[in-house]
Design goal:
3 domains; single chain; elongated; Rossmann fold; Probable phosphoketolase; disordered C terminus; six-stranded parallel β-sheet; alpha/beta; 37% helix
């Protein structure tokens, strides 16, 4: 069905019939919301309310819900009148009963869950399931049709809304910002998202600041500042505020509805005017987008007081105002009167179904906010048109070729993706696109920027573009979540240490994906892809504050079917890995890769095979005769740990040539887990064949070493596993000194081999002492010269071609441009 967006309203004001329909919807959704919180039986009060009709555990939140229901009703009328595609995103954390009630009333809920039928039995099931064992959560969750925004955590309504609006030029996203939510850092920052919206090619976000005065137990900041101050704040953010206040006097509901309908019409006419201007002039100056300040009592329409204490308009209405409705006659009677105040007999027929007049204000089909295809993003998902990543391969005639910058090669691949997908793919970065070496994409796209531009900004800021950069990890994460949840593709690149800023947002998205995968009606969406560079081992410019690989540990706490962690060792493995990630669905993919010039190890064909396996033996670095066991296994995960393992093997070949060494590289960290723990996990038999059950294993790892032990603790021979990794030692120093501070350096790795291979300690005692002394010499050199020893900085694999050896020697391997 084709809908015509951004139509101006032809009637001067809402008709009395429309006002009546709005009020019936509002009363019905309020009734259904209260019923969900309280009732286990007798859902339509067809008999006097009894204590056994009330749930034994009263869980839920009423305070914000009536305001959300009011707004939903009015948006219904606007959508129906203008045929305007609209999504509804709520920031108030626990408005769940209202959104469930609205999707039930417009028919979407029953279409999605047929057992929640349009009769008394269906209403009873609707009520019972809410915040009930085996039922649905109290907040807006994946189970709620029309939702893309988990209401359990505050701060992300606007960033999700703008992510949904990017590249959706006909879509209005009504984003309800709770006044408690408005106090969070991410939400306060997300008001600036309007500087990244193009009026011609993007949709429109309509922020509605819902001021009801209180959080759980305290007043809210924005509800308690003066009107002039609030107006100045919103205008300072770039919005034109329209102020509405209701519920604080004896004004009739009809008059209240009429006033808000008029404001909403004015707002929509302003938006239609902006869109019309943008159609004529796509490069128009950024407009002052309208927003609504919506001020109502908390708990609007609940009993004015309970037990002699103010309830409506008070923090006491935040959760369950009548907490003893099952236990005291007074509360039970008050609950019955509250429910009856909505007039259920006027709203539902004898069978228990909503009367046609109750839901007549709802739009039809996909225009229902609960049925918007974008809110079930897989319905509108288009596969990316992918270039062949092999075309961007680094030539590796021999192991150790190079040097090359892995993320720079990825940037060339992403450039081609953008060319082929001009409206379906975006890159989000907190001012780190160029720093992370992805700037090649700017040859085919701009960085979107709709604030003032100056000549010295460079040639790549424009009113539209595929790159969105703002120095806020929260916004980058939120925008990408909104973008992928509504059926598009993208990636978020950040410095490894600072991705921790979005730990909690990652948690919520991973939980959303986990739950969505269990709902057959939720279609798979594009994965949320991270590229973390400027990582822990090459932070010689910024130092200790920028050295933290712990995001991996955080990620692997989530359900195995959702998370993936990749540590490609060179450019070709990075290209193969990212091609896979961008084609995947319903995952969070974390890819960690360095950006500095480094040696390259695998041809593209070898890299593809290696990435397909996820880990494997690198034969060029192994010297175990066919049919024999190694004396030691040396494994690595991560680019710098791989270099140090290979350099250690080079020393062993020179100093201990009789030692049989098997070298294993791990690119897919999840392969280390048993197959019953993760879909990518290995069988014990396969793991034992690679790592052996009796031989020492020296594992050089990118992150905190205990994670490898955690992933492998059930494996045979785990007691033989010795892991080196980051142990919270760092400073502003050279790359090799950084490795030595954490004992992942080549000299220490050979010492580990000497200490752990039976019988080697005595024979290699002099070598061990020499390695210890070489570490001291390397540290002294770094302290004296500010650079690493040439024998370290210019080291190449012995089999590297001569041209690569000269190039590595010429490369500035001590550079640490991480800003």
């Amino acid at each position: 069905m084709t809908h015509h967006a951004w139509q101006a309203r032809t009637d001067e004001k809402a008709s009395p019939e429309e006002i009546g329909a709005i009020d019936r919807w509002w009363r019905a959704t309020n009734y259904l919301s209260v019923g969900q919180i309280y009732l286990l039986d007798n859902p339509l009060l067809r008999e006097p309310l009894h204590r056994d009709h009330v749930k034994p555990r009263l869980v839920g939140h009423w305070g914000t819900t009536p305001g959300l229901n009011f707004l939903y009703a009015h948006l219904n009328r606007m959508i129906k009148a203008r045929q305007q595609p609209t999504m509804y995103i709520i920031g108030p954390g626990h408005g769940g009963p209202g959104l469930v009630a609205s999707s039930f009333l417009d028919g979407t809920y029953t279409e999605t869950y047929p057992d929640i039928s349009y009769d008394e039995a269906g209403v009873k099931r609707l009520f019972k399931q809410f915040s009930f064992p085996g039922g649905i959560p109290s907040h807006v969750a994946p189970e709620t049709p029309g939702s893309i925004h988990e209401g359990g955590e505050l701060g992300y309504a606007l960033s999700h809304a703008y992510g949904a609006a990017f590249d959706n030029p006909d879509l209005l996203v009504a984003a309800i910002v709770g006044d408690g939510e408005a106090e969070t850092g991410p939400l306060a920052t997300s008001w600036h998202s309007n500087k990244f919206i193009n009026p011609a090619s993007d949709g429109v976000v309509l922020p509605i600041l819902h001021l009801n005065g209180y959080k759980i137990a305290n007043p809210t900041v924005l509800a308690r500042i003066g009107e002039d101050e609030l107006d100045a704040l919103m205008r300072g953010y770039g919005h034109k505020p329209h102020v509405f206040e209701a519920g604080f006097d004896d004004e009739s509901h009809e008059s209240t509805h009429a006033r808000f309908a008029a404001i909403l019409d004015d707002v929509m006419d302003e938006i239609a005017g902006i869109k019309a201007q943008a159609a004529e002039d796509p490069n128009m100056e950024r407009p002052m987008w309208p927003m609504i300040v919506f001020r109502t009592p908390k708990g609007w329409t609940c009993p004015d007081s309970i037990d002699g204490q103010q309830t409506e308009g008070s923090w006491r209405s935040h959760q369950v105002p009548l907490s003893n409705a099952r236990d005291t006659d007074a509360h039970l009677s008050t609950l019955e009167g509250w429910l009856q105040s909505y007039g259920p007999d006027e709203l539902f027929d004898d069978a228990g179904a909503p009367l046609p007049a109750t839901s007549e204000i709802a739009p039809e089909g996909e225009l229902r906010m609960s049925a918007r295809p974008e809110s079930n993003g897989g319905l509108v998902l288009r596969d990316l048109i992918m270039p062949d990543f092999r075309d961007f391969a680094v030539d590796v005639p021999n192991p150790g070729a190079g040097p090359a910058e892995a993320t720079k090669q990825l940037g060339l691949f992403l450039k081609a993706i953008i060319e082929k997908n001009p409206d379906n793919f975006r890159i989000f970065a907190p001012d780190e696109l160029a720093s992370n070496r992805l700037q090649s994409v700017l040859e085919v796209t701009d960085k979107v920027w709709n604030a003032r531009r100056e000549d010295d900004d460079g040639a790549h800021t424009a009113s539209s573009g595929r790159v969105v950069e703002m120095l806020s990890e929260h916004q980058c994460q939120g925008w990408l979540e909104g973008y992928t949840l509504t059926g598009r593709h993208g990636l978020f690149t950040s410095y490894e240490a600072f991705i921790h800023i979005v730990d909690s947002m990652f948690n919520q998205h991973a939980k959303w994906l986990k739950t969505s995968r269990e709902l057959p009606w939720r279609r798979p969406i594009g994965s949320l892809n991270y590229l973390l560079s400027s990582h822990v081992w090459r932070q010689d410019h910024n130092g200790f504050s920028h050295q933290d690989p712990g995001f991996i540990d955080h990620v692997v706490n989530k359900k195995a079917e959702v998370v993936r962690v990749y540590l490609p060792a060179d450019a070709n493995t990075l290209l193969s890995t990212y091609d896979h990630c961008l084609r995947s669905r319903d995952y969070v993919n974390v890819v960690i890769a360095g950006k500095q010039p480094q040696a390259q190890w695998l041809t593209m064909d070898q890299a593809i095979d290696h990435c397909t396996r996820g880990l494997g033996i690198w034969e060029f670095a192994s010297n175990v005769p066919l049919g024999e066991e190694p004396d030691v296994v040396m494994a690595a995960a991560g680019d710098v740990p791989t270099i140090e393992i290979l350099a250690a093997i080079d020393i062993i070949r020179q100093e201990l040539p009789e030692l049989k060494v098997r070298m294993i590289n791990v690119v897919d960290l999840m392969r280390l887990q048993p197959e019953e723990e993760h879909p990518h996990g290995m069988t014990d038999r396969a793991f034992d064949q690679l790592f052996t059950t009796t031989k020492p294993v020296i594992f050089n790892y990118h992150g905190y070493p205990w994670l490898i032990h955690r992933l492998t603790y059930r494996r045979n021979g785990h007691s033989n596993l010795h892991v080196r990794g980051y142990k919270e030692e760092g400073t502003t120093t050279t790359p090799f000194d950084m490795a030595m501070l954490n004992d992942i350096d080549r000299y220490h790795l050979v010492m580990d081999v000497i200490d752990r291979v039976p019988g080697l300690g005595t024979r290699a005692a002099s070598l061990r002492q020499d390695l210890f002394d070489r570490r001291l010499a390397a540290r002294r050199y770094a302290r004296e010269h500010g650079a690493d020893l040439p024998e370290v900085a210019n080291w190449t694999w012995p089999d590297a071609d001569e041209e690569s050896k000269r190039a590595m020697a010429a490369a500035d391997s001590t550079g640490g441009d991480n800003d």
